[in-house]
UniProtKB/TrEMBL annotation:
InterPro entries: BchE-like, Cobalamin-bd, DUF4070, Elp3/MiaA/NifB-like_rSAM, HpnP-like, Methyltransferase_Class_B, rSAM, rSAM_horseshoe
Cited PROSITE patterns: RADICAL_SAM
SUPFAM superfamilies linked: Radical SAM enzymes
Domain Radical SAM core: 187-413
Name of this chain's protein: B12-binding domain-containing radical SAM protein
Entry keywords, A to Z: Iron, Iron-sulfur, Metal-binding, S-adenosyl-L-methionine
Cofactor requirement: [4Fe-4S] cluster
Biological source species: Methylocapsa polymorpha
């Protein structure tokens, strides 16, 4: 449980004159265990308990009046307790569609304790009609609706007789955002740190809700803000890697070119103790000057939504910018700047054939991309895909046994079987470690050589590395059932004293192998947004301490 800290000194607004101070409990709901959140790696780390800190609630915590007391609890680590709800005057909740049932569970517990509950974030902003039982709905981004919510709660924290909906009409400029209240969170218990530079994306991919929620013109923070937030993450004990959660890191290339020299200078001052990663469109490969600056700033990974290796399918989903360069050429251009590509792949497009699964596996073999998040297509509200499928009567929202709400052109069982085959073959240990061996030969030699700085070789980092190494060697190298593939990768590097790739590859590979096995056995889901996934996860909560 995160107690009140000196964070109050960093909050920038004041309660309306003459109003009482308030106690605000910010609760972030659990995620459904998924391919991209690395749950299987946590037991090997000696302390990590969640993926990365949520930006939204921590920004809201930072803008609340200075005199108000704030607690933040991430239920991916521990549930909010009855004592937390008893302490609070009001409860704030935020989340995505995948967390809908968990958000409702938090609301029910808060209401049982007699507390007023406000809900914000991307899910309610897209679909406020799904949340009739919350007392306050905050629709849209930080702005005048946030100010109005503070005013309401400053006057009265009793539950209103009817739901109050507050909609942002004038959103706050990102350059005026405070640093998220990282000090309220257990930053050292997250797998990654998180930071945001921009919001919005200029592209209109058919299945994506980002333009509908945040617009097509990228809005930006200043370089000074980013540097201050990185300093704060380091001070709070971030675990060596920070992810830029921007919808598209390269949405404004000029602004990114201006930011990167500041990141390079920051890395030099901080001994390159932190590696960086981001999400960007694949056409970033057409900007070698940006890639070179990112290499110098110690970016190690770029998540690219490749979606499908089939060019005609990309054109059909309004993602032709993925073929501005041939896809394999674009991947290799990124690799030649020392950065691994993590690929988003989707099955279930209208253009898919019975050969699409084999084409995906062939693409992974050719590209040597180690990690591809393979999902079934899901239609999200406020997307062109949703609108089209609704007109075609192809939305299957009512069927909680399906992994997707889309009525595919191919038979559903065939698409699901194709997904399981892809997961099985792509993440067999021998195949996965072979792709990582390729990365060690063809990508990592281009990576910026990091100095043996006091920050990187701090006692904390050395202890953490020894804990992870010992757990990997014992749980995977001795007791694991894929130890032969593991040792073929690890032993030559162990003999040469190359510990970092053993740790980074070992942790990620273990999660990918274990999750893929769950997928093939039916224990995990083919879409992060499926109604089935929501139902199963709600009935079987993630164990505490995992």
């Amino acid at each position: 449980m995160s107690l009140v800290t000196p964070a109050e000194a960093h909050r920038e607004t004041h309660a309306p004159a003459g109003r009482a101070t308030r106690r605000i409990l910010c609760v972030f709901p659990r995620y459904v265990p998924s391919f991209g959140t690395f749950e299987h790696a946590y037991p090997l780390t000696g302390g990590v308990r969640a993926f990365m800190p949520p930006q939204g609630l921590l920004v809201i915590a930072a803008v609340l009046p200075k005199a108000w007391e704030v607690r933040f609890i991430d239920e991916n680590m521990d549930p909010a307790s009855p004592r937390d709800f008893a302490w609070a005057d009001a409860v704030f909740v935020s989340g995505m569609h995948i967390q809908r049932r968990q958000m409702e569970d938090i609301r029910a517990r808060a209401h049982a304790a007699g507390k007023v509950v406000a809900l914000g974030g991307p899910s309610v902003s897209a679909c406020p009609e799904l949340y009739p039982d919350f007392d306050y709905l905050h629709i849209g981004e930080l702005g005048d609706a946030t100010d109005a919510l503070v005013e309401h709660l400053a006057r009265d924290v009793s539950r209103p007789p009817a739901q109050i909906v507050l909609t942002t009409k004038h959103r706050r400029d990102l350059a005026e955002f405070p640093a998220p209240a990282y000090e309220l969170a257990k930053i050292d218990r997250y797998f990654l740190g998180s930071i945001q530079f921009s919001s919005g994306c200029p592209y209109t991919c058919e299945f994506c809700d980002i333009p509908g929620l945040y617009g097509r013109v990228a809005r930006l923070k200043t370089a000074a803000q980013i540097i201050a937030e990185l300093d704060k993450l380091v001070a709070c004990g971030v675990n060596g890697s920070v992810y830029f959660v921007d919808d598209n890191f390269v949405a404004n290339r000029r602004a990114l070119r201006d930011l990167l020299p500041h990141l390079i200078d920051w890395q030099k001052r901080n001994g390159y103790a932190v590696s960086l990663s981001c999400e960007a469109t694949l056409n970033i490969a057409r900007s070698p000057e940006i890639l070179e600056l990112m290499r110098q700033a110690a970016f190690d990974t770029i998540f690219c939504g490749i979606e499908t290796p089939e060019p005609e399918a990309l054109k059909a989903i309004d993602k032709a910018h993925n073929v501005a360069l041939p896809i394999l050429e674009a991947v290799r251009a990124i690799n030649r700047h020392g950065m691994e590509v993590v690929s988003g792949i989707i099955l279930g497009f209208d253009t898919d054939t019975r050969e699409s699964g084999a084409l995906i596996l062939d693409f992974l073999e050719q590209s040597k991309i180690p990690m591809a998040t393979i999902n079934l297509l899901q239609a999200l509200p406020r997307t062109p895909l949703w609108d089209r499928l609704q007109q075609e009567n192809r939305l299957r929202q009512e069927d909680a046994e399906r992994e997707s709400n889309v009525s595919f052109k191919l038979p559903y069982d065939e698409v699901l079987a194709m997904w399981r085959t892809c997961m099985d073959k792509a993440y067999r240990p021998e195949a996965l470690f072979a792709r990582y061996e390729h990365q060690m030969r063809e990508t990592r030699p281009y990576r910026l050589k990091r100095p043996n700085s006091r920050q990187r070789l701090s006692p904390r980092n050395i202890h953490k590395a020894l804990v992870i190494l010992s757990k990997l060697l014992w749980k995977v190298g001795v007791r694991g059932d894929y130890r032969r593939a593991f040792w073929s990768f690890v032993l030559p590097r162990l003999m040469r004293g190359q510990i970092e790739p053993i740790l980074s590859v070992g942790l990620v590979a273990h999660h990918l192998i274990m999750f893929a096995r769950d997928a093939c056995s039916g224990k995990s889901d083919a879409s992060h947004y499926s109604a089935k996934a929501l139902t199963l996860e709600f009935q079987a909560p993630l164990p505490r301490g995992r």
